[in-house]
Amino acid sequence: MGSVARPAPARAAPAAAARPREPAVDPAELERLRQQARDAGMAEGRKAGLAQGHDQGYAAGLAAGKAAMEQQAAQLLATAASLPAALRRAEEDLAEAVVALALDLARQVIHRSLDARPELLVPVVQDLLRREPALQGEPRLLLHPLDAELVAGVLGAELRAAGWQVLPDDTVTRGGCLVRAGSGAHDATLETRWTRVSAALAGMPAA
Q1: Beta-carbon count within 10 A of 148 CB
Q2: Residue 188 and residue 177 in contact, taking contact as beta carbons nearer than 8 Å
Q3: Whole-Å CA distances, 192 to 7, 110, 164, 176, 189
Q4: DSSP readout, 90-146?
Q5: Which residues form the Flagellar assembly protein FliH/Type III secretion system HrpE domain (predicted)?
């Protein structure tokens, strides 16, 4: 009897392809990478911020410097413009000081001259007699007691002829006199004469 063919044994199915194993992630390494990324971002941001701040600071500094220069220039121009007026004021002040000094020196010289030569008052009284002939009502000539004695001795006759009376007065400074009458008066004291001279010199135009 013939032999019965046996079915060939089935081949074993090929084993399923093995999946590759994912490498294990080290948490420390992952954190290091994250920190590195953060550091890089912060560095880039800081660099950009510094650049922007530098530009802004440069612009602000330039504007401040320009404003300061403009202010200094304006001050210099104002100072230059005021120089002529300041020079004029200085000249006027100097002129006034010179006049005051000259008057003071002249006053001292006059006083010393009158002390040494009291007869210098005589021409002053003679000038008053010529300029004030119309005084009515018993004109009185008030003089320092020492000057009154001197004038009465030199001009007594002339004064009596004009109807003038010589009176000593302690309040009158030596070298000056006062004339009083019913029709008027004339102040020829040294103080008043110096005041008139000072006022006249102060009103003189600059040379």
Answers
A1: 19
A2: yes
A3: 167, 14, 22, 9, 5
A4: HHHHHHHHHHHHHHHHHHHHHHHHHHH-GGGHHHHHHHHHHH-TT--S--EEEE-HH
A5: 71-197
